[in-house]
Amino acid sequence: MLIRLELTTPGTDFMTADTYNQFFTLHGAIMIFLFIIPSIPAILGNLVLPLMLGAKDVAFPRLNLASWYIYIFGAMFALTAIVTGGVDTGWTFYTPYSTESTTSVTTMTMGVFILGFSSIFTGLNFIVTIHKLRMPGMTWFKMPLFVWGLYATAIIQVLATPVIGITVILLILERVAGIGIFDPAMGGDPVLFQHFFWFYSHPAVYIMILPGMGIISEIISTFSHKKIFGYKAIAYSSLGIAFISFLVWGHHMFTSGQSELAAMIFSFLTFFVGIPSGIKVFNWVATMYKGSITFETPMLYALSFLFLFSIGGLTGIFLGALSVDVHLHDTYFVVAHFHYVMMGGTVMAFLGGLHYWWPKIWGRMYSELWAKISVALIFIGFNMTFFTQFILGTKGMPRRYYNYLDQYQPLHGFSSIGAWIVGVGFTIMAVYLIYAIFKGRPAGNNPWGALTNEWETSSPPHPHNFEKQPVLTHGPYDYDKIIAQSTIN
Amino acid sequence: MSNSTSHSTFLAHHFSDAEQQKESAKLGMWVFLLTEVLLFGGLFVFYAIYRSWNPDMFYNAHKFLDINLGAINTVVLITSSVTMALAIRSMQLNKKQNTILLLTATLLLAATFLVIKYFEYSHKIHLGQLPGKFYTFTGVEGTNPHIFFSVYFAMTGLHGIHVVAGMFVIGWVMIRTFKNEFSSEYYTPIEMSGLYWHLVDLIWIFLFPLLYLIG
Asked: How far apart are CA A21 and CA A89, in angstroms?
């Protein structure tokens, strides 16, 4: 909000350049490491995964609790860094600047390292839970697609997070002990840091999006009241994305200095990762085709996701093309692309999932009317904010500048208004969701008439999740065979 | 394994039987070891890149490491892996005294490793063969010899931290053995600590030739 306020008009309004630098680093680092990466797996996954599998709990409940404490501990580090002077490197901590900056980079990256443990433990827990704690009758291909999404995510978490761990350790050693590996004056190579960093951070983008895609699969099938189209294709494409995501990190570095051959291979692989994403989008659309769709709030979020993610994904292809990228690199176009995928994708999916499972978590319904108003505000405000930034980017507005030329003013102003509309939408949501916990109508076990296993138990669930060991009797999307009655109508 | 264990004290409530609990613990541990391999993987990449850029300097610098001490440490760690494996075997046979003895031996060997490492480190600190900007030694031919010592200290340092962590874990299962918490029916924590200890050993087996035996 404040970032957009500063950018409403050109010139220094109320922030200096340094403050602005610290603000966007704060925004990036907090949002990515503290919100988007853990949001879906930790908040929704921990609750829904055992329910979907018919298990009493995740495989290692104490490890799960430990990862929560570690998360808090890491978050405290990050917050300390902000209080003690902030960090002004951007969330990517690129060397050589991050080794020279006098701000609290060390504390911040320690925070990132600790948060990494939290992420690894969650991923490890999910992998074991999915392998070992499925209820009798649930084979791999009878798992709900959200579980497949979490599984693919967990694999990336486990494989990629240690690499960022060692990267920030080396960065800290570089700052504290001056080991010289990222410093060209001492025979080191700053670009190596970028390789290490993106080897984690690109797969991390899929840590953010894959569970979101899983949620969308659930919601679209439920509210189309139809069997999901191409179940196996969606499941495999999750794994496909996880696999390819490890091979595309170089596309962040087209302008950082790597060989032309490497750039071409990375560019090709980047296009390639679009294929499984496309498979999912087409399968979702095919699921809706001839379904009897109802437009409850979670479905509206799912549709927003489809629309926004498609834009985000397509603009990703522009950026993946070498020649175009040279023009657009580090402009607002990248900022807009990223927000379309992350906020239009992950956050929309998270909100959809939150509205979908809210009645299961609390046993009560929220106000459908206010929920719809808030979806509308967020959707409109979001597009105003970030579509405008695509235009700004193609006109050459670089990212991370606190000031700009007068010619960009109308678009920046428009974008800022959009951000405030989104803010209003979120405020309304917070109010009605909290209201629903206390005063909402009872939701019943299965408010949406869905067939996945979490709706079989009471809302909110029994402390052991189920009264007795559940046994799977039907597939997760057998809407053609069974009609589940909604418990609220 | 029998199903009669459903009311045993060690079975957590959310597993249906001991077999499932053990299998879960094993899978979890292997996944964790995989993350450890990847953590060290970053350092191995770092080693490979700088060695390929400065092959001669690496060769010259490695002569300043003490092969004898490195070799002794390798033997010490491999022996500690053997005592660890024997400790697990003893618990399978319900021989509690033996288990405690063997775990103590493992701990002592780990401590020996650290003591030898301490002598190596203090010798290098004395000579100024230190990483990066602290490097003051002048005897190595080739460009940027401090890089070799950055690599050396980063890799052996991280490994040393793992040895210390392993000692805590072994001490912890030793106390639990002492309190009669394990038997031939249930000894998973000892077995998992063993897996971890073998990994620590294995990483050293890679570090030793890469750092001490260049040429």
From this structure: 7
Burial B162-185 (b: 16+ CB within 10 A, else e): bbeebbebbbebbeebeeeebeee
CB A38, CB A119: distance < 8 Å: yes
B56 touches chain A (CB under 8 A): no
HSE, side-chain direction, 13 A CA sphere, residue A413: 9
Which of A108-112, A127-131, A140-144, A307-311 is predicted least confidently?
A108-112
Q: How crowded is residue A418: how many other Cβ atoms within 10 Å of its Cβ?
A: 21
What are the distances in angstroms from CA B182 to CA A131, B97, B196? 26, 12, 19
Query: Cα angle vertex A315, ends A311, A321, to 5°?
Result: 155
Higher pLDDT, A189 or B170: B170
Grouping H, G, I as helix, E, B as strand and the rest as coil, residue B127 is helix
d(CA A57, CA B138): 60
Whether the complex's predicted ipTM is more than 0.85 is answered with no
Give the residues of chain B that fall short of pLDDT 50.
1-7
Selecting from B32, B36, B146 the residue whose C-beta is nearest the C-beta of A180 gives B146
Q: For residue A477, give the amino acid letter.
A: Y
Among A128, A129, A200, A201, the strongest candidate for a mutation testing the B interface, having the largest count of B CBs within 10 A, is: A128
**Other residues' Cβ atoms within 10 Å of the Cβ of residue B82:** 14
Give the predicted TM-score (pTM) of the model: 0.85
Q: Distance of CA A137 to CAs A150, A165, A187, B145, Å?
A: 20, 39, 59, 61
Residue A33 DSSP one-character state: I
Contact predicate A58/A64, CB 8 Å: yes
Give the nearest partner residue to A158 out of B12, B34, B154, using CB atoms: B34
CB atoms inside a 10 Å sphere around CB A49: 25
**Nearest of A129, A124, A77 to residue A105 by alpha carbon:** A77
Tokens of A430: 């917070």
Measured between CA atoms, the residue of chain B closest to residue A156 is B35
Mean pLDDT for the stretch of residues A3-17: 47
Indicate the range of A33-37, A98-102, A478-482, B30-34 predicted with least confidence: A98-102
Contact call for residues A99 and A172 (beta carbons, < 8 A): no
Cβ contacts of A180 on chain B, cutoff 8 Å: 131-133, 144, 146-147, 150
As a whole number, mean pLDDT of residues A26-41 equals: 72
Peptide bond into B55 cis (omega under 30): no
Res. A9: pLDDT tops 60: no
> Taking CB atoms and an 8 Å cutoff, what residues of chain B touch A178?
131-134
- Judged by average pLDDT, the poorest of A253-262, A267-276, A473-482, B148-157 is A253-262
Q: How far apart are the first and last CA of chain A?
A: 40
Taken in order of first residue, the domains within chain B and their CATH numbers are: 33-212 (1.20.120.80)
